[in-house]
Amino acid sequence: MTSNVIDLEHLNAMTGGDAELAREVLGIFRHQSEIWGRLLVADAPNEQWADAAHSIKGAARSIGAMALGDACEVAETRGRAGNVAVAEASVLINAIKDHMIDAVENLAKVEHQLSMSEAFKAS
Predict the structure, then answer these.
(1) How far is C-alpha 84 from the geometric centre of its chain's CA atoms?
(2) Which residues contact 77 (CB under 8 A, 6 or more apart)?
(3) Would the pLDDT of 120 be above 80?
(4) In total, how many domains does the chain have?
(5) Measured between alpha carbons, how far is 40 from 47 in angstroms, rounded to an integer?
(6) What pLDDT, in 10s, does the model give residues 96-113?
(7) Nearest Cα to Cα of residue 103 among 17, 13, 25, 12
(8) Nearest-CA neighbor of 71 among 47, 44, 98?
């Protein structure tokens, strides 16, 4: 069972099939996206947006938003290497933001699927 953006099977495995815990993890993701997303600024120091990408990556992978996690990994790796031009940083950051928008937009759908899915009923 998957959403286009969020892998529900992965979320199920990460939360042991506990729907309440899955909803909590989704809430944490939403919160982390809001906080760290503000630090994704292309003309900021590379370390700033690389750290933000790292934090978003962990939150994304915890819910199964793998495309977002992958975009964050690319940006984090490049940002930590240093000396990234603003134009390149913009491309990396925009990729993160595009995937983050998709993931956040899918949260309501996933939360609904959680409430309807037997796979997420606590044993």
Answers:
(1) 23
(2) none
(3) no
(4) 1
(5) 10
(6) 999 999 999 998 888 887
(7) 25
(8) 98
